[in-house]
Design goal:
two-stranded antiparallel sheet
Length: about 240
């Protein structure tokens, strides 16, 4: 286990690029992004009572059992092995997040002016959070330091805005799969942690479509977990 954790530390701590002036440039990171064996990151039938469609919570059960996952829900206990270690990389060094419209709400949330996201009055982001949507609205300030900003912007433009807000820290790409695929296709993601869960969904939204030979752009490492999931890290 120590060897796995040591190698994982190296794989998630790449050399930071520098600007022409010699200053470190913030990284663009993805963490704890779960997919099925057949590549689906969400199921079919996403709705208010089924945020991940017919997949339910099966893609994320690996995390709920960890100490990291239990702490998110204010519960004690949880495992402290490789799943926990990988999951804890989600937060440190992040200064802003970008997410797609499908992560912020169910289909049609843009028609509800009262919709404030899935997470209640105190969302778990605690930072500027940018929602990509073709129907932007005024910023939404929440408790705990989260402010949702709604942008109609291409990936590179959204990243520029988020980097300014991150004030030198890294920017996290929060998903879902459609917007993440757009950031990958544009070559904007520096570091990515994908969790392959041993289930078959058969339908939904895939992550990898149209990204042939993506692995050639990254150093890829694989970490097996006793829980049955496979952690993959992509680092450039």
């Amino acid at each position: 286990m120590a060897d796995v954790i040591s190698r994982q530390d190296r794989s998630t701590s790449p050399t930071r690029p520098t600007s022409l002036e010699g200053a470190a440039v913030s990284l663009v990171r993805v963490h704890n992004f779960s997919i099925s064996l057949d590549g689906f990151a969400t199921g079919e039938g996403q709705a208010l009572d089924t945020p991940f469609g017919h997949a339910g919570h099966r893609l994320h059960e690996w995390m709920f059992g960890t100490r990291f996952g239990r702490e998110m829900f204010g519960e004690p206990g949880g495992t402290e092995g490789v799943d926990h270690v990988m999951a804890t990389r989600h937060g440190p060094g992040i200064g802003a997040e970008i997410m797609g419209a499908g992560k912020f709400g169910p289909p049609g949330w843009q028609d509800d002016p009262e919709w404030r996201g899935w997470w209640g009055d105190n969302p778990p982001f605690h930072m500027p959070t940018y929602v990509l949507t073709h129907r932007p609205r005024p910023p939404l300030e929440m408790e705990g330091g989260t402010t949702f900003h709604f942008l109609d912007a291409a990936p590179a433009e959204a990243l520029e805005v988020a980097r300014d807000a991150a004030a030198g820290q890294d920017v996290r790409i929060g998903g879902g799969p459609t917007m993440m695929r757009a950031f990958l296709a544009a070559g904007l993601i520096d570091q990515m942690h994908i969790v392959q869960v041993p289930i078959l969904l058969g339908r939904g939204v895939r992550l990898w479509d149209g990204l042939e030979a993506l692995e050639q752009q990254y150093d890829v490492e694989v970490f097996l977990s006793p829980s049955g999931v496979t952690h993959l890290t992509f680092t450039r």
